[in-house]
Amino acid sequence: EAQVTQNPRYLITVTGKKLTVTCSQNMNHEYMSWYRQDPGLGLRQIYYSMNVEVTDKGDVPEGYKVSRKEKRNFPLILESPSPNQTSLYFCASSPHLGATEAFFGQGTRLTVV
Amino acid sequence: AQTVTQSQPEMSVQEAETVTLSCTYDTSESDYYLFWYKQPPSRQMILVIRQEAYKQQNATENRFSVNFQKAAKSFSLKISDSQLGDAAMYFCAYRSAMGGGADGLTFGKGTHLIIQP
Fold first, then answer.
1. What is the pLDDT of residue B99?
2. Over the stretch A4-27, which tens digit does the pLDDT of each residue have?
3. What pairs with residue B24 in β-bridges?
4. Closest residue of A to B89, CA-based?
5. Cα(B104)–Cα(A35) distance, rounded to whole angstroms?
6. Torsional class of B56: left (φ above 0), alpha (ψ -120 to 50), beta (otherwise)
7. C-alpha distances out from residue B54 to A90, B35, B92, Å
8. Which residues from A are below 8 Å from B45, CB to CB?
9. Average pLDDT over residues A26-51
10. Which of A59, A93, B68, B103 has the CB geometry, 3.0–4.6 Å to A29, for a possible disulfide?
């Protein structure tokens, strides 16, 4: 089954403790991205990757890092999480740049206390 | 930069009736895609319908249809014969077809749709 898998689905952590949210897709997609969703703000892009070893900032990249060492994986790294990073996070993938559709993961609910 | 505006934070409709969700956008590009996504309580993002800007014909998917007005930069979603399972947050989204830059989706803030039984 074609899918985008995020882990974990839920995470509660403390301020300053490094964490990684994993994202994996099995569709051989080139383009992957991370979004955060906050009430009243919709979804906003954090980082994106056009292919292996090619990543760039989206609209709200502060406090996040990403890597793309393999085509299928695109982890989101919070080196020193803060409470304002409490949010719902989505990973998405598309076949290539400019493709019409994005496939979303199930979401990760992160709480930083 | 593109912007997407959903002016209705919440809408309510009686089951079996028709409801229209509004969306406007701002862009200087001529080639792009527009989408409506549904997010039920499960939080999954589900694509409801998409429209290519170069197509004049409005997209339709079963009970869901859009009214795409390119000159007015308007992209509303009509849900006919509303069902309880349609209750969700609905997001309008824009994506450039130019293939450059971030190429990400630009989302509106969402409309919470309530279905009254």
1. 61
2. 999 999 999 999 999 999 999 999
3. B5, B74
4. A42
5. 9
6. alpha
7. 29, 14, 18
8. 90, 92, 104, 107
9. 94
10. A93
